[in-house]
């Protein structure tokens, strides 16, 4: 039997035992974006269903938050939309990175760091491109 001071089993290292890098950040962000999309997405979907079932007045209130109508910009809806689309693109970019890691590729330090940074850049650039294109379409 092991003594309380020195267990026979290995001790799991804590986050403070490692040097922080983009590879750790992108992995944690990947988990967080997946959780956000699942949780917030389910809540918004439920709100949409309830407002749809409650009638035109409540559904109109839902649409006022999430749509751009005749030059009227709802800041809450746009902030939510931009944030939620960033979570989607960030999760997508880091998901592709994780796919290659699962296949046994990209474990070299330089490549791993580069793909981590590329996942962050993809999330930001894809979000900006999406909203710029959407803005042009709405105001075009």
Q: Would you spell out the secondary-structure blueprint of this structure?
A:
Blueprint: H1 22-54, H2 56-66, H3 75-102, H4 109-139
Helix pairs in contact: 1-2, 1-3, 1-4, 3-4
Strand content: under 5%
Rg: 21 Å
User: Please, what is the average pLDDT?
Assistant: 89
How many helical stretches? Answer: 4
Low-pLDDT ranges: none
Which shape, going by the Cα principal axes? elongated
Distance between the termini: 74 Å
In helices, the fraction of residues equals: over 70%
The secondary structure category is: mainly alpha
User: What sequence of helices (H) and strands (E) makes up the elements?
Assistant: HHHH
DSSP, total strands: 0
Largest beta sheet, briefly?
A: none
Quick overview of this protein structure:
By secondary structure, the chain is mainly α. It has four helices and no strands.
Notes on the protein architecture:
It is a single chain. This protein has four helices and no strands. The chain is mainly alpha-helical and 140 residues long.
